[in-house]
Design brief:
alpha/beta; ten-stranded mixed β-sheet; four-stranded antiparallel β-sheet; 20% strand; binds pyridoxal-5'-phosphate
Amino acid sequence: METEWVSTGGPYVEDFEKNIASYVKCAGAVSCQNGTSGLHISLLLTGVTADDAVIVPTLTFIAAVNPVKYIGATPVFMDCDDSLCMDPVKLERFCKEECTLGNGKLIEKASGKHIKTLVVVHVFGNMADMEAIMNIARRYNLKVVEDATEAIGTYYTSGEYKGRYAGTIGDLGVLSFNGNKIITTGGGGMILSNNADYLRHAKHLTTQAKSDELYYTHDEIGFNYRMTNLQAALGLAQLEQLEDFIAVKNANYETYKRELSGCKGIQLLSVRDDIRSNRWFYALYFDGCKLNRDEMIKHLSGNKIQSRPIWGLISDQLPYVGSRTYKIEKAKQYWESVVNVPCSTNLSQEDVKYVCSVIKEAIG
Ligand SMILES: Cc1ncc(COP(=O)(O)O)c(C=O)c1O
């Protein structure tokens, strides 16, 4: 603030971009105002136009899908598997049975629309099955945008993508530094890619597509999406603490697991075996429990503990009613049965044990 470089100019923005790229081990990163704007730009970079359809998940936060509508394109909603992320088996079946592939173009039979891109979300810090999804994407000529807004720090520990971080496997990835994420810049986001053309174009589009600094010439429609120097300064300080925050998230996860292990009908959802997860959110799955989802939320609230159901399915939200969906089954089941319990990094082990004791008291 003393240097007066408070806006989108100033050295911290580039420093933050470089440090994030180095942390997630990818070729480069371009800052933006939030994860939503990063997803908007990523869809544009993969060539999505108003005439196209885009494959998206239904079980996620609505910001993962709204950018499809910003462009005027059409979402096609996919189901999740037990990782809560996109089900690759259904994805493949959809491409095979509901689309045609000719001249490198995947066309949805029902609408005749070209599908160029799919958006995959790494839900709650878990990782989607990227091996399967990337294979399908290659076969059907789809670009992959990874919404890694909830999964900064999650990476594969084995398999084809060993060592690869969420957001760096597809064509483009997006991070969020919203206040509810593991690290925050108040609000902010980052576009990740290993493709130099995408990175250059992302920077251009996020900075009003100015092609000449002095004469203010603009060669396409750009956006005022760049992060400010103030946000980036905060981000640099937060990034230094990220691994410590992830350690707390993991320790608290283990406490939940231990404390709730004997609870009949409540299962603490886990993550894929072959990843190190940032454990952003803790999700309890209710199946055959004395209390259902809503009763437990009410009981916790009565004890001054905030909890909430997983997001309502996007394909059921008013602006999306009537959209194309493909065999949505598991997502419905998780919507009806999941309760998210406190997960902030400032929770102590005692806090977590208290939450568990209130849950146990309710089910006797
Ligand atoms: C899955 C998902 N996508 C997109 C976003 C949007 O990120 P932002 O709030 O930074 O715009 C969020 C979180 O806020 C999210 O959870």
